[in-house]
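Hey, can you fold this one?
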Amino acid sequence: MSESGYVFCCRFGKDKDLPVIFAGTAGRNELRIFDNDSEGTGRYKELGHINDNRSVIMCMDTASNGKQIAWGNSAGQILVSQYSIGQAEEEPDIRTI
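Sure. Predicted structure:
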């Protein structure tokens, strides 16, 4: 994995069926999500990320339903989004290609 900066915040996901860890960084201003050793092998593989945010990610929390994450950045913004991992992607609409 390439050098990406300093980790400013981390949070365990609250979905009991999806053991994940979120990490927010400075430097490349990334939000990353890792598998929390669901296979019991001591491996924490990256499942996804959002790169090159405009500001350092300073804090985060996950919703009690385990389906949303909120994070704050050094520009004073709060961003909230839903997430799902491991679900099949929908077929693209041919009209948008």
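The longest strand covers residues 7-12. Let me know if you want another pass with a different chain boundary.
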